[in-house]
DNA sequence: CCAGAGAGTGAGTGGTCAACCACACTAACC
DNA sequence: GGTTAGTGTGGTTGACCACTCACTCTCTGG
């Protein structure tokens, strides 16, 4: 009764990807400084010591998580742009916005971007990752949508507004000011 | 040579205000979890122990700092709105935006708002302070400008875009994507 | 079946942090 | 001069954190 089990132990590369995926949830709550490597290890189901065999430092782990998130966001926008190919710039941007709204319905991905911003202020490596992430995102959105500078800028401004809405829990409160901030912003 | 010194009992209150003012600079770099109470004490020129005589906990200290920042922002917008009284909604909003740009030329005030967002995710007290701060801000901007929901929302979306620009240092890079994000945003 | 390469961990280490406490200093008032 | 009330600090504590190392376990190729 020897079932086909190609591997019981994971390869280091597989583990690294598992850690990257699960660390998103760990870092999402309390960001770079507020999250311990023990929490990251627990989320990944490995020992804390092994985190340090897979990543050289907490900083590089967090930076890798941030990069991973940007890749996911970009992939979602690419999918949306492909579906809306040939339409007007506004339609493409709307499709991208909708795809982004769906992608971040989980919230963790967006919170990582917020915490990346916060950490970028004083951590050069994180800042570099965030700069590159946004650089690629902006260039891609401009190229794929063909929108004007203003339209693209507006797209990202609304994205940042989304971060505010989620982070301070605007959607938990029903009041005139919350309706103003969240007007027209879909939340799946 | 006995000079007149009327006050003496309010000195603790004075100290508290000093700490609030100087703690902005301390928390601005690394936020709630990344900043130690020793750093806050050093910035205020007092011992770390005395911070805990003035504030019951680090959380309440940070929350007070956040509230203090919102008060300052609101005061700046009020001044701008007073100067532009009687103009159209867009003119008032522009004046407010300009006042905000001037206020945060120091960066620290804005970074506190960013770190408040980050901490609000998992710290209920900070979240409550941020909610109240933005609630008052939104209501005030709407009332003082008379702008439509969309205009007011746009005002705050651009504010959030400012946070991104400063936090990841967009203005340090000169590239098409940075020009797109920062287009029309004045930075004193 | 065994040797070795790589996956994975338990048990630390040195250092730091939030919070606390006992105590010193100052000034006002009697 | 002595009491009292408030300002302010040095020193400590126990918990926790990033990071390390010696070690075990598992798989694979020969």
Report on this model:
The structure is a homodimer of 188-residue chains. With 188 residues, chain A is mainly alpha-helical. Helix content of chain A is 74%, strand content 0%. In chain A, α1 (12-34) packs across α2 (37-44). Chain A is globular, with a radius of gyration of 19 Å. The N and C termini of chain A lie far apart (46 Å). The structure holds a DNA duplex (30 and 30 nucleotides).
Please outline what is shown here.
The structure is a homodimer of 188-residue chains. Chain A has 188 residues and is an all-alpha fold.
In terms of topology, how is this protein built?
The structure is a homodimer of 188-residue chains.
Chain A: H1 12-34, H2 37-44, H3 48-54, H4 58-83, H5 89-103, H6 108-120, H7 124-145, H8 149-167, H9 176-182
Helix pairs in contact in A: 1-2, 1-4, 1-6, 2-3, 4-5, 4-6, 4-7, 6-7
The structure holds a DNA duplex (30 and 30 nucleotides).
C-alpha-based Rg of chain A, rounded: 19 Å
Helical run tally of chain A: 9
Which whole number gives the mean pLDDT of chain A? 93
What is the tally of beta strands of chain A?
A: 0
Global shape of chain A? globular
Structural class of chain A: mainly alpha
Question: Assembly state here?
Answer: homodimer
**Beta strand % of chain A:** under 5%
Annotation keywords:
mainly alpha, 9 helices, homodimer, DNA-binding, 188 residues
């Amino acid at each position: 009764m020897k079932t086909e089990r190609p591997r019981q132990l994971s390869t280091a590369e597989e583990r690294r990807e598992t850690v990257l995926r699960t660390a998103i949830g760990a870092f999402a709550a309390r960001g770079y400084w507020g999250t311990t490597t023990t929490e990251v290890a627990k989320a990944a189901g490995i020992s804390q010591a092994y985190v340090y065999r897979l990543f050289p430092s907490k900083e590089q782990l967090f930076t890798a998580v941030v990069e991973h998130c940007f890749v996911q966001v970009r992939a979602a926008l690419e999918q949306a742009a492909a579906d809306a190919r040939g339409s007007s710039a506004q339609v493409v941007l709307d499709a991208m916005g909708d795809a982004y709204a769906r992608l971040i319905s989980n919230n963790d991905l967006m919170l990582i971007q917020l915490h990346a911003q916060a950490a970028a202020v004083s951590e050069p490596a994180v800042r570099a990752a965030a700069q590159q992430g946004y650089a690629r995102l902006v260039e891609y959105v401009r190229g794929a949508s063909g929108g004007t500078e203003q339209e693209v800028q507006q797209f990202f401004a609304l994205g940042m507004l989304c971060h505010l809405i989620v982070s301070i829990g605007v959607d938990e409160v029903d009041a005139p000011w919350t309706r103003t901030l969240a007007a027209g912003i879909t939340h799946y």
